[in-house]
Write a structure and sequence with these properties.
single chain, mainly alpha, about 0% strand, flat
Length: about 140
């Protein structure tokens, strides 16, 4: 994805590392580059806000469930496999077949195309309330 505008950090690179940013798993210098990009790029800022809202909703809805031990070991083994492939330089194809079901009683409406993006944009570090009543 690209918004078409020139940036020091390309949109694709920002979106590739979005979850690392959301999970505070990046070096501060890399985080700063993404923050600057979000200030310049409305489409990436919208995607950031959406992903942040989804993570908050999942945390609120599923935060108290224990992860089954066999699932945890499979996920960790897959992560190790991917990391080993990256170190060896081989190209990996990762296929994920997961179904996540979220039950939401209320949600904030998503602005239609052409509506003011500035009003609905979420700034990095801002709290997103996915459970706000629909208008």
């Amino acid at each position: 994805m690209s918004c078409g505008d020139p940036h020091d950090t390309e949109c694709g690179e920002v979106l590739d590392h979005l979850y690392e940013f959301l999970d505070n798993e990046m070096a501060e210098g890399d985080c700063a580059k993404l923050r600057v990009h979000f200030e310049e790029c409305s489409p990436c800022l919208k995607q950031y806000g959406l992903e942040q809202a989804i993570k908050a909703l999942i945390k609120r809805s599923c935060g108290c469930d224990d992860t089954p031990a066999d699932l945890r070991s499979k996920v960790l083994a897959r992560i190790d496999s991917i990391r080993a492939g990256q170190r060896s330089g081989e190209q990996l194809v990762v296929a994920v077949d997961t179904t996540v079901e979220l039950h939401v009683e209320t949600a904030r409406p998503v602005p239609a195309a052409g509506e003011a993006a500035e009003e609905s944009a979420v700034r990095p570090g801002a709290t997103v309330e996915a459970g706000a009543p629909a208008e």
